[in-house]
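Dear colleagues,

As part of the handover before I leave the project, I'm documenting each prediction I ran so the next person doesn't have to rerun anything. This entry is a single chain, and its sequence is reproduced below.
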Amino acid sequence: MTQEQMRKILNVGVLLSSERDLNHLLEQILSSVMELAHCDAGTLYLLEGDALRFCIMHNNTLKTYSGGDGKLPDLPPVPLTPENVCARALLEGRTIHVADVTCSPDYDFSGSARYDAKTGYHTRSMLAVPMRNRAGEKLGVLQLINAMDERGNVRPFPEEMALVLESVSSQAAITIQNVRYIREIQELFVSFVRVMSSAIDERSPYNGSHTRHMAAYGEKFLDYLNARARTEGKEPPFSPQRREELLMSVWLHDIGKLVIPLEIMDKPARLLADQHRAFLHRMEVIRLLGEIEALSGRREDLDGLVQETRKAESLVESVNAAGFVTDEKLAELEQLSRRIYRDRDGQEQPWLTQDEYAMLSIRRGTLSGRERDMMQSHVIMTDKLLSQIRFSPELSHVRRWAASHHEFLNGSGYPSHLSGDDVPAEVRVITILDIFDALTADDRPYKPGMPVERALSVLDAMANKEGKLDPHLVRLFAESRCWESEK
């Protein structure tokens, strides 16, 4: 073996140990063994079920190179039967030489003949090398065609080359298996993340599609940003790794909501359900006590009392789920909170308790300050929960990005009140996606969904008037129309 061949073999080992993209790996394997064997063409098959599937095909004479981009060659799979030379090599676990396919009655070369007839190529010598992993499990076959001498003439493959290719094939099989294991682990982790995200959304009858919408919008928005950069002759801002990391952050951004009580997450009105029932029950008690007093002759204005309780009920109902409480309503609530009645024991009781009054007096939204703090704590819990996961280096920013999706550029966000350059571009993207879906969602208990154009106006105001969002990203988000066809 020459020093040049030794150098090539060592280079193959380096390539195999460094590549983690399966399509690129398969292409490098075939290219490397073709260079080692100094042949004109080759095919790499992978076993799938009971057939060998074409994965990578190279033919230097025809200048055809297919499969390296992940798109499989458009050829039918080869049945795993001994008549086919590549299949027999795998079935019997041995390298098969064929000096001249036109003079070999032991194998079925009808496929090669059809290919030659269609392309004008001339297949002569062939070498089929099986690929098996450490456990001896069948993975695939490397099939090389038309070894070439120094003058470019076709010749049989040298015997000593078989040992070299068998060594490379063995190493390639192990690497393929390792890459598959890594991909399976990654897919398992992604599946787990999506299950957890679905559990968060499905935990509540409201907000059930929030994360899924954000991920769908995010994929399109990032692709738009990359495509726009390419048209401007710039480097795409989101590499495949960075894109995956950001989308993983989207899927996990609300995981902290797993520990938020449902009565707060799903609070459609200012009063909790128990508080609301207690108030209505109290109004009924007041009416019944009034009837008793009327029957005993101690009350003459029963109709007036009934009207007053109905008016109180109407006031509470009008305020309870209102988007905003006016000064007039607040004044009426304050008067109602001063009214008292005497229970059956003669004890004075309020028509409206202090807790009920406090909750109904919330100007905007349905959450009290304490409840809002509890709801906002979901980002702290997101950080705490994600701190228990050992993310790979490729996903090392997920925890930080996911837990920062309520931070604003002007420092008014939470929980860390980051501002300016301390808010990464990825977080800025996630925040825009989160706010947009929150504004347009039609499944929220406390408000109807906004029309898209109005939501975009809100984002624009938050960016250009309030300084909370990135104006450049908000403008590009509006241009992208990434939400279309998703709702």
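The first helix runs from residue 3 to 18. The mean pLDDT is 88.

All the best with the project,
I.
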